[in-house]
Specification:
66 residues; mainly alpha; 2 domains
Length: 66
Amino acid sequence: MSERTVIIAGFVVLLAAALGALVFARLRRETVASLAETITYVIGIRTVRIVAVLGWAWLGWHFLVR
C-alpha cells in the first residue's frame, strides 16, 4: 500500500466515525449531547477559548502568510 492510500483510508475512517457519532447522537438525544451542545459547553471554558484562538492564529500564520 502506498502512503497516499493509507492517508486517504485514514480520512475515510475519520469521516465514517464522525458520521456514526452524529447518527448515534441523533438517535439517543436524551443521553448523548449533540455536537452543537458539546461545542457550546466547551467554548464556555476560558482556557479552551484561548487555546482555540492561539491554534487559529498558528494555522493562519503558517498557511496563509506565504
